[in-house]
Automatic annotation (TrEMBL):
Signal peptide coordinates: 1-22
Protein name: Serine protease
Residue ranges annotated for the Peptidase S1 domain, each copy included: 37-273
UniProt entry tagged with the keyword Signal: yes
Entries under PANTHER family matching the protein: SERINE PROTEASE
Taxon lineage: Bacteria, Pseudomonadati, Pseudomonadota, Alphaproteobacteria, Rhodobacterales
Length: 273
């Protein structure tokens, strides 16, 4: 979930492009608009908070780790979490409760927005009942994004939390040491949103949006992580987990309430050390 805007710097230098405007976002309002994007959904966390998540299997949802912790750094009970695939204007393609989840090893709330935490800001949620692939086809991961690659983002966000918005084109700015930066138009509510590759038979997930910063030029840079190894580890961790309760080790960032007339939740904006 996004936190309040403030400047932060990654471990490498960024070239700051012009940010896409709200007019570049396509609202996926109708069923035809949503075709192919059904596996992206809103993760409702109780008390009017949410993140964005994506099916990577018929029973697994990928999102940001900080989404599954409250504002005290305590894990949210799985039974309080609901994934609503393709939610638009109150109607979802499918809705499922969460039976359990795991977060990446080494992820700690006390570390704040450190580069190490950004690399580990990944969670895998197991659905109580699978969503048939004929209803929502899961996405695969993209292995090797490079600077200059065209990507796109599908997400919920502040003042657009009732339906997915699609930014059709933004760019990979930098990639290094497990971190990736983008010039994508993200906002509160976009935490956990998939960043997709542009090309091939079907889009693949390059990264997840976990934070960003507003620059002095009025642009925004979004940040995520390299995914394949972390996701493989999370799958093994989930299979090895015999308990239905969430992992309490290595807790994550605090949650912020969503904008519905007041506060907001979503992608995090603060300093990376």
């Amino acid at each position: 979930m996004f936190r309040l805007f403030s400047l932060f710097t990654l471990v490498f230098t960024l070239t700051l492009p012009t940010l896409a405007t709200a007019s570049d976002l396509i609202r996926l309002t109708n069923r035809d608009d949503l075709l192919g994007w059904e596996a992206v959904g809103r993760i409702d966390l109780g008390q009017d908070s949410y993140c964005t998540g994506t099916l990577i299997a018929d029973n697994l949802v990928l999102t940001a780790a900080h989404c599954v912790f409250d504002n005290r750094g305590a894990p949210i009970l799985p039974e309080r979490i609901v994934f609503r695939a393709g939610l638009r204007d109150g109607a979802a393609i499918a809705a499922r409760n969460i039976s359990r989840y795991v977060v990446a090893d080494g992820y700690r709330a006390s570390d704040g927005m450190s580069a190490d935490n950004v690399r580990r800001d990944v969670a895998l949620l197991e659905l109580s009942t699978p969503i048939p692939t004929a209803t929502a086809s899961p996405f695969a991961l993209h292995m090797n994004p490079t600077r200059g690659d065209n990507v796109s983002v599908v997400s919920y966000g502040r003042k657009r939390d009732d339906a997915l918005s699609w930014e059709r084109q933004c760019d990979v700015l930098r990639r290094g040491e497990g971190l990736i930066s983008f010039n994508c138009n993200v906002t509160f509510g976009s935490s956990g949103a998939p960043v997709f590759s542009d090309g091939g038979y079907r889009a693949r997930i390059v990264s997840l949006v976990v934070g960003g910063h507003k620059t002095e030029h009025g642009t925004t840079v979004a940040y995520g992580m390299e995914l394949p190894d972390t996701v493989d580890d999370l799958k093994r961790k989930l299979r090895a987990s015999a308990a239905s309760a969430p992992s309490t080790a290595n807790t994550g960032f605090r949650k912020v309430d969503v904008t519905r007339g007041g506060n907001a939740s979503g992608a995090r904006f603060e300093k990376i050390q």
